[in-house]
Amino acid sequence: MTDGWVGAKRLLDAFDAEIGNPDIAFLVHYWGVTPAHRDNPVHRHSFFEVCYVVDGEGTYAEGGLEYPLRPGTMFCSRPGVQHQIRSRGGMYLLYVAFETVEAKTGPVVCRRLEGLKRSGRVAIAECQGSPSVLLWRALLDMASSGKAVREALASAIHALLVSFLSEFGEEESEERRHMPLNPNERHVKRAVLYIRNNLSARLRLRDLAEYLHISGRHLSRLFSDSLGMSYTEYVRNERLRQAAELLVSSDMPLKEIARETGFQTIHYFTRAFCECKGMPPGKYRETGRATQNDGGLEAWDS
């Protein structure tokens, strides 16, 4: 059945809106079905990316450790963590990149996600029969059948993404499950939501700290401890992430994108974008759209 999975990916890419229920909502950035995935550069994301090895061998490097990749291995790249996939002979790799819509996700799930970001499992071997892999394969088979109903696909996608919490995270005790978020967790959640909703503003650390009624030093420490990066790095990454999305998905002029994502000048925007993506914004838009039309945007920008 894997012969039709590349075509199924194109159908799944059409789900660019929020997918969720009252407890948890997701935003999927891209899907990947790459029959011969080789080395990619050392990089990091501001979102989760889960991969599954259908065939082939390689290694996954993260935090100074290397994890062997073989058929049946599933692994998770967490937000803010530098990593690299290596394979000389190429691997048949499935992957999906996603994040939660925090304003529409309950506190229990937010707490589990924060735990997953800090100390979740990285790689799981021989998981061909795990719920996540079975759901993933069923989803691709459904999408490639030509008979899939959009609502059914959306439900299957949601079930797959939720299953990753159990696969890579730790199950909470019943007592812990009903505990409210602690103050630090609430501060991080509100800060992240504020940043994403106000990218066009200056977003100075002290201003956000005052908004949250905490000190700037405390807020800075919360970002380092919870997200694995400084406040400045997080804001910059979010600006560039949103700019990259707007470049490919909209016809907005570069100056308007720079303004909407908080870059004070087009020159500063261009320089920062080049440093992050290795090419100027205009070239990124041109290449991204051409690659997206060929169904390969996620591999090009992963």
From TrEMBL:
Extract the InterPro entries matched here: AraC-bd (IPR003313), Homeodomain-like_sf (IPR009057), HTH-like (IPR037923), HTH_AraC (IPR018060), RmlC-like_jellyroll (IPR014710)
What keywords would UniProt list here? Answer: DNA-binding, Transcription, Transcription regulation
Q: Which residues form the HTH araC/xylS-type domain?
A: 189-287
Question: What highest taxon heads this organism's lineage?
Answer: Bacteria
Q: Does the keyword Transcription regulation apply?
A: yes
Note one Pfam family from the annotation. Answer: HTH_18
Q: What Gene Ontology molecular function terms does this protein carry?
A: DNA-binding transcription factor activity; sequence-specific DNA binding
List the CDD domains: cupin_RmlC-like
Q: What's the protein here called?
A: Helix-turn-helix domain-containing protein
